[in-house]
Amino acid sequence: MAFGKSKNRRRQDTAQQKEAVKGAVRTHGPGLLKAILLTGLTVALVWGGIELRRWALSSPTFLLKETTFSGLQRARPAELLKLSGLTVGQNLWTLDVGALERTMSAHPWVRTVEVRRHFPSSVSVEVTEHVPAALAVLGDLYLVNEEGEPFKRLQPGDTLDLPLVTGVDREGYLGDEGRTREQIRRALAVAEAYAATQPAKRERLSEVRVSPEGMVLVTADGLEVRMGEGETDAKLERLSRVRGELRARGLSAQVIHLDNRARPGWVAVKLSSPVSERSGASAQ
Fold first, then answer.
1. Within 10 A of 204 (CB to CB), how many other CB atoms are there?
2. What is the pLDDT of residues 181-194, one digit of tens each?
3. Which CATH superfamily is domain 61-129 in?
4. Is 137 in contact with 165 (CB distance < 8 Å)?
5. All structural domains of the chain with their residue ranges
6. Count of CB atoms situated within 10 Å of the CB of 141
7. CA–CA dist 239, 98 (Å, integer)
8. Are the C-beta atoms of residues 44 and 70 closer than 8 Å to each other?
9. Which residues contact 226 (CB under 8 A, 6 or more apart)?
């Protein structure tokens, strides 16, 4: 009798274990199946990615065939290609766009550059060049842009008709770049305002001198105009009236003073003729 009870108990335990396994399968089976499928899919994707990368890096489909440039005026495509090392036959996937942009930016005329890959086989390079606004004497002659930044030493082949900014020096620029650039910007602003008055050819601006007393303009015919500080437009208007009066009288000036701080409306003129000076005349 005891033996029969033991067999029944074993049967019950086995049945309970089977039910437990079935319950576990019902409960965890779908999640386990998803995990297996996801693992398989991940492995397949990784393997596929490796194979795809191997194909992309070795396929002739992605070899560089053409490089186009836009925005070039003075820089030359061959110069930028030489700087960057970009050549036909390179794989587009392996190109370091950032490195290409940095190396091309080393060209003195290049202000900004953006390189784009166009799959499967071309690259475009969009360049913004510096626009020269004047020459500055900083030990050597340098081209400066409209922001007062010296960007290139003047070379014999740089045929440019630009006003000269003097009164700044290399030591000052190296010691305080921001201050020197601001001085150059102010000189350029005065030069731009002067050009807007549409001077005759012989009256065109040759030099803008930065001095402690303010800006000094020197024209192509040798006239020196001492502007002082501030009120640029009003002073240039007075300058035009004084010039008109001098022409009407058949006179020419050597120096015109517009820098009288005590009496801003007054103009002093030093004539080129033996009648050396006319001063204290109001231009109002």
1. 15
2. 999 999 999 999 99
3. membrane protein fhac (3.10.20.310)
4. yes
5. 2-58, 61-129, 133-282
6. 15
7. 51
8. no
9. 213, 214, 216, 255, 256, 257, 258, 259
The whole-model pTM stands at 0.74
How far apart CA 185 and CA 206 sit, in angstroms, is 17
The Cα-based distances of 100 to 57, 62, 82, 122 in angstroms read 19, 18, 11, 14
Q: Which residue has the tokens 């060209």?
A: 107
Q: What average pLDDT does the chain have?
A: 85
> Which two tokens mark 217?
């303009």
One-letter amino acid at 151 equals F
pLDDT of residue 84: 97
Residues 143-168: pLDDT tens digits? Answer: 999 999 999 999 988 888 999 999 99
The CATH architecture assigned to 133-282 reads 3-Layer(aba) Sandwich (3.40)
